[in-house]
Design a protein that fits this description.
This protein is α+β, with helices and mostly antiparallel strands and about 200 residues long. It has six helices and twelve strands. Helix content is about 25%, strand content about 30%.
């Protein structure tokens, strides 16, 4: 049963200490292996360089629309081979972020069909966090060849989206196909010129 739970959560090879249910979502306590390969030289090490006193709370994913949190004590290990310290790793986690890539993909998929307010109500993801996920996307994420290959002119639209008057998200849309082409970090002319230059390449 434990192996089934680990496979379902994408935590194969990790210890699942316990699962708790709460109003803000489900919480899973994860125990990391004591030995790990150094990311710099590949040598296995189990020597602890620094112990974490407080567990990290990470948004791991969603079960339905309920948030799934992972709580884990991540130690810093010491590699005797290259004499460098490194933090224990977790699958699917991006450095200096507390949200897995799987959770970000789920939220972005919801934003494609719903507005920020609906995502906050149904998924429990705040406007600020959802906006940061959008702005981490590359400036361009569509295939320009699909549009540039056509002989007719391409009409682009620039729009601003906000949540109750908070910070804006700038989108570029093809008015002919109603397809969102890009999400920009700001509306400065330099950013728009960079978008145009990328299209002309």
């Amino acid at each position: 049963m434990d192996d089934d739970i680990r496979g379902l959560l994408g935590l194969q090879g990790y210890g699942v200490g316990g699962i708790m249910w709460g109003e803000d979502g489900d919480r899973v306590t994860v125990e990391l292996p004591t030995e790990e390969a150094c990311p710099h030289c590949g040598q296995l090490t189990a020597r602890v360089h620094q112990r974490s006193k407080k567990a990290s709370r990470l948004l791991w994913g969603f079960v339905g629309q309920r948030r799934l949190w992972v709580e884990v004590h991540r130690q810093r290990l010491w590699c005797a081979g290259c004499r460098r310290a490194f933090a224990q790793s977790l699958p699917g986690m991006v450095k200096r972020q507390r949200v897995t890539m799987a959770a970000q993909v789920a939220v972005l998929g919801a934003l494609a069909e719903q507005n920020f307010a609906s995502v906050e109500r149904s998924w429990g993801v705040s406007y600020g966090r959802a906006r940061r996920m959008l702005l981490r996307l590359p400036v361009l994420w569509c295939d320009w060849g699909v549009l540039v290959g056509e002989e007719r002119p391409i009409k682009l639209g620039i729009d601003e989206h906000s949540f109750r008057g908070k910070g804006l998200v700038i989108t570029i849309t093809c008015l002919s196909t109603h397809q969102v082409l890009a999400i920009l970090p700001d509306d400065r002319q330099a950013t728009l010129r960079a978008l145009r230059a990328c299209r002309q390449q």
